[in-house]
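Holo prediction — nicotinamide-adenine-dinucleotide.
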Amino acid sequence: MTDFTYAVDADGVATITWDVAAKSMNVMSMTGFAELDGHIDAALADPAVKGVIVTSGKKDFAGGMDLNVIAQMREGGAQAIFDGVMQMHGVLRKIERAGMDAKTLKGGKPIVAALPGTALGIGLELPLACHRIIAADNPKAKIGLPEIMVGIFPGGGGTTRVSRKLGAMAAAPFLLEGKLSDPKSAQKAGLIDEVVAPDELLARAKEWVLSAKDADLVKPWDAKGWKMPGGAPYHPAGFMTFVGASAMVNGKTQGVYPAAKALLSAVYEGALVPFDTALKIEARWFTHVLLNPSSNAMIRSLFINKEALEKGANRPAVPDQTVRKLGVLGAGMMGAGIAYVAALAGIEVVLIDAAQEAADRGRAHSESLLDKGMKRGKVTAEKKAEVLGRIAATTDYAALSGCDLIVEAVFEDPGVKAGVTQKAEAVIPADAVFATNTSTLPISDLARASARPGQFIGIHFFSPVDKMNLVEIIRGKETGDVAVAKALDFVRQIRKTPIVVNDARFFYANRCIIPYINEGIRMVAEGVEPALVENAAKLVGMPLGPLQLVDETSIDLGVKIAKATKAAMGADYPDEAVDAVLFAMADKGRLGRKSNAGFYAYDDKGGRLGLWEGLPQDYPTRSDQPELTEVQHRLLFAQVLEAVRALEAGVLTDIREGDVGAILGWGFAPWSGGPFSWLDILGAARAVEICDDLTARHGKRFEPPALLREMAAQGQSFYGRFAPDKARAA
Ligand code: NAD
């Protein structure tokens, strides 16, 4: 099987076409690289060849590196990774020098990259080594280097070339944030050279090859007297950039993402030396990052397993359940959001509320989101009309006739939910699936209102629906496979990531978030500096400290949940100390962001000012403050022990879902790959040791679950013991 084909036309232009068999998107493998190398050698050696076009046989150019190759490289250890990467640099550098004389820089053969569509990762690093990059004007195409998003950085020369091409400052969004652009924006930014009509792509590439002069082939960094745009590190302007970049990276990543730091080091150190040495430095830092367990865990959760779940890794084997007509009951914050994402995905939606004005308001939510999209040039007037045209807002349940899926998002009240369930079921087809978006009520209890509990399921969205990509699907006791498949197919249609869990209090995500918030509040009650609590959370990679999080989700919701939990648990209820703080805040009317007052103070416009100064008066801070690590362990173990308990109890059935769900659902320290990946990095034995210590000093909520103790005793890891084969291999 070949990944690249090679042909020379009558005018002496060779075309190397990337077209990996049996894949819809090209990805680079080591054998692919060897093939490419062979074709480049052939073109450079053949006197009849005047120049080369590198293009794709598919609608896109390439999606990047085959991440399994990276996993394999890692197994060989540092030397194998470094050697593999240097080999890759050798091929790309050969393309860049294209046979030219090392001294005169003359006599090379022009090599142009012609990109029909998306070009990501190595799919852009290869073009960057060519002498010119021409892209088809395809607004859907994405061009960029997204490596940083999965915990690595561009290691195929992209870091060195883009920072030298654009300067460190202008390169930052592409390298440090993984920014992707359409071809026109990529050209404007200087990332690529030219954008042409799609049907002129190859003709224009050929024209360029045949007219290119020697000087057109010399990269700026290979030319005499080259200086880094924006200044190298010891140039006054460059100095400012690098000092600023270091502060910015540490500010944004809180120092927990090894890839961001390594990337910056590669750019900084590379800028001080000649190009070929810079590539070697890039390769060393890349090796360093690949050997860090964080990069392994991030790739596994954020790329491989996320994609596996999206493709239906846990979908029951029943026929296609694509949703055609969706009924949404309740047009409030959640219902309106669900209607929007469904209509956007091409699904016909009936949006129902008790009053017509409420239903209309729900539909207007879509209109305002579409208007925002139009302002940003992402949505056309036709698209807006089309999407809005799919949402019928009404109070009339008869409109639900023909719906194959219902998602209920009315008030969090079992009585109200039971009422709308029965009203809807009276109208919808006998084989329709009924889903509830409840966040706290057991699915199996709500299913009692249904005449068809086998077709009753939980589909739990996160707020705001249009932004949050996780959807938690909850199987009730009687939920059947078709309902699960229906929910999964729906989530796939709206392009979100599903996890499937079993029914238990707070399902999975909220079960883990609540103890996190509670632990933060508990520390405030104990007299720990609130700023220490918040910063400890952020310094370990949580996007929001627990106090900010409860302000965002609202303190009265916390009170409501606490009361319901206490009623359900009775004497076993462990959170009295937390409630004392929470209830006192609520009594003061400090309900969080929505009341412009909570654990934080806010200005009149709702801008967060800082921690509320009254807190230390009510909860005097102790003179002996705990160590940072201790606070971090309390905050993290509060969450991960709950995840382990969820696995132990069979609420979670797949640790991949536990990890992916934690990162997408509540932003659990993404650098760690999720709770189970973090425990694997730490090792079960060390985790048990820390928990025993925390238990002795802070109470039995930190007691390691039996499963964790057993794994510690047997030297097991979660991915070693529980992962399906594919996830383990990663
Ligand atoms: P909301 O109060 O904004 O919206 C509820 C809507 O339901 C209102 O528009 C109300 O008029 C309508 N409604 C009430 N009774 C009705 C009836 N009998 N018939 C038709 N419509 C009726 O609430 P929300 O925040 O959108 O939450 C809805 C559901 O989603 C709740 O079960 C909640 O627990 C759950 N949920 C909320 C969040 C969140 O962050 N807000 C997240 C996940 C799940």
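READOUT: Confidence is low (pLDDT under 50) at residues 726-730.
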